[in-house]
């Protein structure tokens, strides 16, 4: 096939891709269904033309009709692109909240579909049992692009959509790994896998694919950061990532190539925004959206061209077997939706899924290009028996046709019948009121513009009359919805407030006031605010706001590593992230008060606006308290962060001044570019956040301890080497009754509660506890519990007694502490200071 025919074929394919979108919109079909229909029609036309004309066709036309489409085209050229882009576009920080249901659904859904389909085929098919299970693995792959497009078109809860999107992506990776396992059983001349391969080899293959994807993505990201001055080079390198990952995993390491590509995309998705510039990351996402659109469309068209070839030998009994596969796969999916999901919801691991959404998920489980590609891989494999190749091709293709043309063409009708295409009554009422307020603002701004530009009054009056009619209609519709209760108005107001907070984060990110990594975290928190408000109103909003201020699972892991293993880098990194987020959040929350007065008050009234002001003020106070606690823990670092913020602000204002000078014509474009480039070095230096050194912070905390104020520099250095920093969260038990007394604690920040002899006492910053058990040499008689986030300095028994014998200030502090708690006999046992050695 010469180069001219290849170019002609590629051009024709892209024409088909371009025309499929308007055709799908016109026929109100999913885009993938339209692509499959066009591809199938082209395939049927090519097969008919070849059968009728035969050798009378010119050689060029015959070569074009016999386009060599192989499974390798799908698996090596197109599938990595599609899977990589889907992984690159996921909201991973939100998906971490639901990793349990996503993983369970992805793995168990594949296993269930494989088992049900394979078991249902065994009594009717002439194939071996393992070949039947191979069919089950092939048809268990859902199409990620179809699922994503369906749920983004629904007004489904975002959390439910995330679970379904994540499940559809990981579903493919799991199914392809299972497909490779069963394929070896039906191939002649290949040793069959053992139980060890099933239970050990397959998980190792998946795990090694995950590790490979992570390593390749980290290496690529490092290189992309080094190429920051060449954005086109960054984009070119990103295109190489999925293909290099797939080949290294699949060909060199024998790992799962698809799993490797998925984890490479997820790794780049997680780490990329924090290490690449905002512009470069935005360009990368846009380029990959386009590449994935082409790859997905080409997969569907090319796979659909094969439908006549794969179904050429179909018989009536084969159609019955296709029906068996359809019923078995449907029952397996129903088991997931009506048994497993409710069980996960009852265990509070998954959101409650309403009946209409379950039906939509069931009917929206479209199969497509991946299923056809795997079926093609079997039909091309000469080691697979001929009868197995024929039947696998027919069953997989027939099932795919049913999901695309049976489910896909009726999906929108089903969604309308289920009522999922309609806005909720609250959303309808809100949209009417928002439109009325927006049109009022437009009328005012148009009137000012007409006056400012001196336009014709007659024309302006005529246009104003026409616009007034539209405004009156909008106001009338808004008045019809005026019976919304105050509770619902509060919910709608909080939703608007959370949406505005998200917009402010994006604006600050574009202005480079917030680093990309922190911007993503703050966007995630804003999304949680919106979802919490939709689910629980004011209570849900408050709960989500407090969660944003709290410390998650990773922080608890970091604290454990620091407290137990003295590994502090992760805790330092997370603390620095938290510092930056709280500083930016404090500024954004102040700006939201103006939004309440200018927008929300006009829609929902003064009482709702006043309540929102109070809720916002409470959030500001909580953020300020969290910042104060960090300032107490890390005073030097807090000063550096504030200096950094002021410098970033000055740099942004300087850039804005240069832009204004350019717009006013006072400087030329060349000078403007030179001035902007001169600020590049300062921008890069500011993007490098100051390092949080916990050892330095420990020294600062020691100097702030009143009990250690009498130490000289040499003693302070000695204590710093011997003292350990411990971080505690509210509710952590620091000392239990009956435990042996081995450590004394100094409170650097936070507060603890001491329960002793039915009495409760609270201790705060600068105080100590735990010394009484050491002095009395008895087991602990009190229980000490952290009531806030605390930073504690701890010293073991031997070092504490040695220090106590040398420092009079510490001895005095211990005596005051024990006397205040009514234990003078313990104070009497404080060892007297030893005489200083003669030098």
Automatic annotation (TrEMBL):
Membrane topology of this protein: Multi-pass membrane protein
Protein's cellular compartments: Cell membrane
Keywords: Cell membrane, Ion transport, Membrane, Sodium, Sodium transport, Transmembrane, Transmembrane helix, Transport
Signal peptide: none
Residue stretches making up the Cyclic nucleotide-binding domain: 707-821
GO biological processes: regulation of intracellular pH; sodium ion import across plasma membrane
InterPro entries hit by this protein: Cation/H_exchanger_CPA1 (IPR018422), Cation/H_exchanger_TM (IPR006153), cNMP-bd_CS (IPR018488), cNMP-bd_dom (IPR000595), cNMP-bd_dom_sf (IPR018490), RmlC-like_jellyroll (IPR014710)
Pfam families assigned: cNMP_binding, Na_H_Exchanger
One GO CC annotation: plasma membrane
GO MF annotation: an example: potassium:proton antiporter activity
Transmembrane portions of the chain: 30-49, 61-79, 99-122, 129-153, 173-190, 211-232, 244-266, 287-307, 319-345, 357-378, 393-415
Main subcellular location of this protein, as a coarse class: membrane
Protein name: Sodium:proton antiporter
Species per Swiss-Prot/TrEMBL record: Gemmobacter lutimaris
């Amino acid at each position: 096939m010469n180069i001219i025919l290849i170019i002609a074929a590629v051009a024709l394919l892209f024409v088909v891709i371009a025309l499929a979108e308007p055709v799908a919109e016109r026929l109100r079909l999913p885009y993938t269904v339209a692509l499959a229909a066009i591809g199938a029609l082209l395939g049927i036309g090519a097969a008919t033309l070849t059968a009728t004309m035969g050798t009378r066709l010119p050689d060029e036309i015959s070569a074009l009709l016999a386009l060599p489409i192989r499974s390798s085209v799908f698996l090596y050229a197109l599938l990595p692109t599609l899977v990589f882009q889907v992984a690159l576009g996921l909201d991973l920080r939100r998906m971490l909240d639901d990793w349990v249901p996503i993983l369970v659904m992805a793995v168990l859904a594949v296993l269930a579909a494989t088992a049900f389909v394979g078991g249902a085929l065994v009594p009717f098919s002439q194939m071996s049992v393992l070949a039947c299970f191979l069919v089950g693995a092939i048809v268990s792959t859902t199409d990620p692009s179809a699922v994503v497009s369906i749920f983004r078109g629904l007004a489904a809860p975002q959390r439910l959509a995330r679970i379904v999107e994540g499940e559809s992506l990981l579903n493919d990776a799991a199914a392809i790994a299972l497909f490779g396992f069963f394929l070896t059983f039906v191939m002649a001349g290949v040793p069959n896998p053992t139980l060890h391969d099933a239970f050990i080899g397959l998980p190792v293959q998946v795990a090694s694919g995950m590790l490979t994807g992570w390593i390749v993505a980290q290496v690529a990201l490092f290189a992309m950061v080094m190429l920051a001055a060449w954005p086109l080079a960054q984009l070119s390198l990103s295109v190489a990532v999925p293909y290099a990952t797939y080949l290294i995993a699949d060909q060199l390491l024998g790992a799962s190539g698809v799993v490797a590509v998925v984890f490479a995309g997820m790794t780049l998705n997680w780490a990329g925004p924090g290490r690449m510039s905002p512009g470069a990351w935005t360009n990368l996402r846009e380029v990959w959206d386009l590449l994935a659109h082409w790859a997905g469309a080409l997969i569907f068209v090319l796979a659909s061209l094969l439908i006549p070839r794969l179904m050429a030998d179909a018989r009536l009994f084969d159609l019955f077997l296709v029906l068996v596969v359809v019923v078995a796969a449907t029952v397996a999916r129903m088991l997931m939706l009506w048994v497993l999901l409710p069980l996960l919801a009852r265990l509070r691991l998954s959101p409650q899924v309403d009946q209409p959404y379950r039906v939509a998920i069931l009917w929206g489980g479209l199969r497509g290009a991946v299923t056809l590609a795997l079926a093609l891989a079997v039909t091309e494999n000469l080691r697979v028996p001929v009868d197995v190749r024929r039947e696998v091709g027919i069953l997989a293709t027939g099932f795919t046709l049913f999901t695309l043309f049976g489910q896909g063409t009726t999906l929108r009708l089903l969604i309308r019948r289920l009522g999922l295409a309609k806005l909720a009554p609250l959303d309808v009422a809100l949209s009417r009121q928002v439109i009325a307020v927006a049109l009022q603002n437009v009328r005012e701004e148009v009137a000012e513009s007409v006056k400012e530009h001196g336009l014709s009054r007659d024309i302006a009056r005529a246009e104003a009359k026409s616009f007034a009619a539209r405004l009156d209609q909008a106001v009338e519709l808004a008045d019809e919805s005026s019976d919304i209760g105050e509770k619902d108005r509060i919910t709608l107001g909080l939703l608007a407030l959370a949406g505005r907070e998200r917009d402010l984060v994006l604006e600050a990110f574009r202005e480079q006031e917030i680093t990309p990594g922190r911007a993503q975290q703050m966007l995630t928190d804003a999304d949680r605010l919106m979802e919490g408000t939709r689910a629980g109103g004011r209570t849900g909003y408050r709960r989500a706001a407090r969660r944003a201020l709290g410390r998650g699972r990773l922080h608890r892991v970091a604290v454990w590593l620091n407290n137990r293993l003295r590994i502090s880098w992760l805790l330092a990194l997370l603390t620095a992230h938290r510092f930056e987020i709280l500083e930016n959040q404090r500024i954004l929350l102040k700006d939201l008060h103006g939004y309440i007065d200018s927008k929300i008050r006009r829609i929902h009234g003064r009482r709702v606006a006043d309540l929102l002001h109070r809720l916002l003020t409470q959030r500001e106070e909580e953020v300020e308290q969290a910042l104060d606690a960090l300032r107490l823990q890390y005073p030097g670092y807090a000063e550096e962060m504030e200096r950094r913020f002021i410098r970033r602000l000055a740099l942004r204002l300087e850039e804005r001044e240069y832009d204004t000078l350019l717009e006013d014509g006072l400087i030329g474009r060349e000078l403007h570019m030179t001035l902007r480039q001169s600020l590049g070095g300062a921008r890069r230096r500011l993007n490098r956040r100051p390092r949080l050194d916990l050892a330095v912070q420990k020294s600062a905390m020691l100097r702030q301890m009143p009990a250690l104020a009498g130490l000289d520099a040499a003693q302070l250095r000695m204590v710093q080497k011997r003292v350990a920093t411990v971080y505690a969260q509210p509710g952590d038990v620091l000392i239990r009754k009956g435990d042996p007394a081995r450590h004394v604690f100094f409170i650097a920040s936070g507060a603890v509660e001491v329960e002793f002899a039915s009495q409760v006492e609270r201790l705060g910053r600068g105080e100590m506890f735990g010394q009484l058990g050491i002095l009395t040499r008895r087991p602990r008689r009190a229980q000490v519990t952290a009531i806030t986030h605390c930073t504690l300095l701890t010293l073991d028994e031997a070092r504490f007694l040695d220090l106590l014998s040398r420092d009079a200030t510490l001895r005095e502090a211990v005596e005051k502490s024990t006397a205040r708690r009514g234990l003078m006999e313990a104070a009497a046992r404080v060892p007297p200071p030893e005489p200083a050695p003669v030098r």
